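<instruction>
Derive structure tokens from the sequence
<data>
Labelled lines for chain and fold:
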Amino acid sequence: MRLEHEIFRIHTKHTFTISRGGASEWRVVMVKVIDRDGVEGWGEAAPSRYYGENADTVVAALAQFAPVLESADAWALEDIEGELSGAMRGNAAARSAVSSALHDLAAKRLGVPVHRMLGLNPARAPRSSFTIAIAAPDELRRKVLEAASYPILKVKLGGERDEESLRVIRDAAPNATLRVDANAGWTAKHTLRMMDCLVAHRVEFVEQPLPPHDLEGLKFVRDRSPLPIIADESCLVATDIPRLAGVVDGINIKLAKCGGPREAIKMAATARAHGMLVMMGCMIESSLGISAAAHLAPLLDYADLDGAALLGDDPFRGASIDGGVIAIPDAPGLGVTRVAR
């Protein structure tokens, strides 16, 4: 198999700001795995600076992965992914792109969508939330009104006006389900101080309120919180989950931080075995990256697959979340096509 790549610049409709900062332009990497018959599998790397990756490190990692794929059996997905991990540690977004492309290729060869190859029922996919990023009050109102067709909103907090922001969003969307993500921007004491406000505004759960390694703090909060606590930055791969059992109520899986669909499936199974809730999120990415996650949506309790819905210039067409309903393509593979420009 041959490995090719292409870098895309994508742009959000609005500056996307969380507790760690914001941006409106993002570089993602399309990866192609091409077999001897010319069949192409597609995947996308959506690298995050927070995890030590960018488009350039992805390209460098792909150069290390290429020799592994040259002589590999395209059906031996588990073996290939083990070899990729051995070729270069970390670089989860790069590995995720290759893994997604291999699953796309395998399903295309079988003539079925990825979800069918995995034995999943798309009708079991939960609704996706739509993210409202940190902004000034007037801009928050505009964003919420633009998102009026989405019944579930994920609210980014961890800024200077959290209570005011939550009040503005609830006023603008009185009937929406609200979920809060602090992106590790709070302390344990501040999280508990925020609980009265969160409950008053009918928030469903809180995602990653504390820094990733503060498991003692997360347990302190979870033991006293009236709302479920979901771990994101504290949970990268399946082996992180046992130490989070009893510390949080659930985990948030992202392909770009775990390394791809196979690891994501292991994470979902491990979380279930520990009695934990399972959520899947995303980075800012195109419909190519979102589609790989969407095919796994039937495994989830909660979904936050809005990365492409936030864009003003998506270069692909695939899975969609109009009104929060996850529409998983039924074409062979991931079911993704390029948009003519």
Q: What stands out?
A: The two ends are 29 Å apart (CA to CA). The domain at 2-111 is CATH 3.30.390.10 (Enolase-like; domain 1).
